[in-house]
Amino acid sequence: MSMSAVKKAETISHQVTIRDDMSNEQYHSIDGISSSAVKAVYKKSLAHWKGQKIVQSAAFAMGNAVHANLLEKDKNLVIKGPKTKASAEFKAMKEKLTKDQVLLTEVEFNVANCITRGALSNPVCSKALNHPDRINEISIMAQDPISGLLLKTRPDLMIESENTVYDVKTTQDASPKGFMSECVKYGYFLQGAHYVYTCQLAGYDITEFNFIACEKQAPYISHLHVMGPEVMKWAMTELHKTLAVIARAEEEVNYGTGWGDYTILEKPKWL
Fold it and tell me: With contact defined as beta carbons under 8 Å apart, do 117 and 220 qualify?
């Protein structure tokens, strides 16, 4: 852990751990309430949070590859494989991967590089990704004094001198309207609030959250989306409501859906 991280942790009265030497796998093995847990409870239910599993899909692998290209390009984590995943060569290469490496087919590898170039060709996105004060993928665990829960977060990119954390998202549509739709659908606003709040609990002067949205198909446009103050205020309120629900469930050891026995479907107002 860096000296700056140690000094941060020493100034906080509640439980805080800050690590800049933790692998992605180590971070995910730690018990704590992540933004993924919050999104699952908020968008669906406690049962979905407890039952969720990480699916190693092609889209998941592509997202990891782009993250590695943009944030950990010096670690050689993205490996170019043969043309098909069904080949004996691909399967043999997969067996030799380290935990954080990503193996892609030849076509996927080229697409990941196109997405990466798209992000770096956007001046605003590139400035953040190459900022001299940036901290990439630092692991933060902090106890929430309100709910009592241990929160954890691993921001893709933090620039404390600008009070901002960033998250890189691969997406079908980086346009303002299209990405707004994805934010609502997938609960990204609560993710932003969770990141900012957890960083604040750890002593970081973070107040803003930005998305670097990278399209996954040609022409591979990337665009920076900033969470405005009104949506951040709303998301913080929803975050604390959701944390209270999780804390109550943990205390009662009750992780149901909360949907009741059945639902009567009524005609929506917009139909």
Answer: yes
Domains of the chain from N-terminus onward: 7-53+123-252 (3.90.320.10)
Beta sheet of 16-19, edge-to-edge order: 16-19, 139-143, 150-153
If you ran DSSP here, which 8-state letter would residue 166 be given?
E
Q: What are 85-122's pLDDT values in tens digits?
A: 989 998 899 888 887 889 999 999 999 999 999 999 99
Show the DSSP H helices in 132-213 as ranges: 176-186, 188-201
**Which residues have a Cβ under 8 Å from the Cβ of 172 and sit 6 or more positions away?**
178, 182, 215, 216, 217
Average pLDDT over residues 151-171: 96
Question: What's this model's pTM, rounded to 2 decimal places?
Answer: 0.90
- Compute, in degrees rounded to 10, the torsion defined by CA atoms 211, 214, 216, 221: 140
What is the average pLDDT value for the chain, to the nearest integer? 91
Task: Give the residue among 2, 51, 47, 52 at the shortest CA–CA distance from 22.
Answer: 2
Residue range 14-43: average pLDDT?
A: 91
Question: Which amino acid is located at 176 in the chain?
Answer: P
| Average pLDDT of the segment spanning 238-258 | 96
DSSP H/E element including 214: strand 208-215
